[in-house]
Amino acid sequence: MRRLRRARIVATLGPASSSPEMIRTLFESGVDVFRLNFSHGSHEDHRARFDAIRALEAEVNHPIAILQDLQGPKIRLGAVSGGKMVLEKGQIVRMVLGKDTSEPNTLALPHKEIFDALMPGHHLLIDDGKVRVKVVRMIDQGVEVEVINGGPVTDRKGVNLPDTLLDLSPITEKDRADLAFGLELGVDWVAFSFVQRPADLIEAHGLVGGRAGVMAKIEKPSALKHFDELVRLADAIMVARGDLGVEIPPEDVPGAQKDLVRACRMAGKPVIIATQMLESMITAPTPTRAEASDVATAIYDGADAVMLSAESASGQYPVEAVEIMDHIIGRTERHHSYPPLIHALHPAVEPHPQHLISAAAADVASSIGAAGVVAFTQSGTSSMRIARQRPSVPILSITPSIQTARRLALLWGTDTVQSNGGGSYDEMVEQAIHHARDTGFAQPGETIVIVSGIPFGMAGSTNNLRIVTV
């Protein structure tokens, strides 16, 4: 089941893609990571999908990653008097604390922490930014706002606050219950929504306790202000362009995406580009040319993975969306402009043996035209260091840990096999040759570069590089 492309595909499961047969078809079409979106569906729905993925994994003997995406806090209006209010540009409206209100010219907002943080000049975006208001003054139990962009407002529409740093954990009680359920199942990655600051990720790590990789979803302007720290603390990053594109100007989203991909590449952390990548394929069998260009841009930037949301979860053409994404990635990576763009960034290599050996392996394998790099790894860190260099050859990771093998399914350019490793140096070499040949990674007569740590089985001990002929 080796993929003949470097970037990975994440697909969301939902009503259109939950049967074992459909999950198998999506995997065979190119999905590397399945996303379980806990904003929708019951625990039993997600358990059934999880079980189907694990059954498929056992059948094909290939590690498959499962990403649990937590909902996070959803800020919504209360009930609107009469069910609907049409706001006009320049109108002054009151927003008050409560679940509903019958007062004229007033909107209810049942979130005290918002009123504690709002200040004059702050903007509130209603219904994905279709309606925009600005706070003009504080009043008892609320604020007065001026309508900047008018339009209809109905019950429980979402509210975004691009200027306001909320004293609010992004991990709700629902998230905690969902997280406990997901960790009990054995998910490989957990994505935390609406991360604002480093303390949010410290809290997330405390709850996960190393049982899964911690992924930060970047979708708030406040997160962009702290993204160097967030990248350092997270195990992976998701650039969630839906809410991010509401809270910052659309013209700023491409630059933010490039900055985040670059920061993750420098840190050796996987990064996913998500939201609206092939949006038109929810209802159409082919994407727009702009969508194809959007996917290709993420690949040229060096993203580890691109993600399908509603396209695969509830769209009419989930398989076609995966196939198209697979084709776009493959064609982009084979284009003559891809190598110079992907190698334009040179991550600094820390002066430590494990970092230097990993970087050297990538350089040596590319220079001698090896079939690839074979990395023995406990935690996956060695493979991430090699992938950070974006070598022109693929990476085969060998790990005794099935958990590590699954997490590495998200990593650029990396295929993984689970194996206990050799007991001696010579046995390690023989095992590398065996797995390289058995997976089709290298043919007899081709060269591979082997990276390992001696003594074996000790995390962080990468100190050996060897070139061998299969």
Task: Give your account of this protein's structure.
- With 470 residues, the protein is of the alpha/beta class.
- It folds into 3 domains: 8-72 and 170-336, TIM Barrel, CATH 3.20.20.60; 81-160, Beta Barrel (M1 Pyruvate Kinase, Domain 3), CATH 2.40.33; 353-469, Pyruvate Kinase, Chain: A, domain 1.
- 37% of the residues lie in helices and 23% in strands.
- The chain starts with 7 loop residues before the first strand and ends with a strand.
- Overall average residue pLDDT: 94
Kindly identify the CATH topology of the largest domain: TIM Barrel
Q: What structural category do the secondary elements indicate? A: alpha/beta
Query: End-to-end span in angstroms?
Result: 21 Å
Number of helices: 17
* CATH level 4 superfamily of the largest domain: Phosphoenolpyruvate-binding domains
Looking across the biggest beta sheet, what order are the strands in? 1-2-3-12-13-14-15-16
Q: Helical residue percent? A: 25-40%
Q: State Rg.
A: 24 Å
User: What general outline do the C-alpha atoms trace?
Assistant: elongated
**Count of discrete structural domains:** 3
The CATH level-2 architecture of the largest domain is identified as Alpha-Beta Barrel
Largest sheet descriptor: 8 strands, parallel, barrel
Measured by DSSP, the beta-strand proportion falls in: 15-25%
- CATH C-level category of the largest domain: Alpha Beta
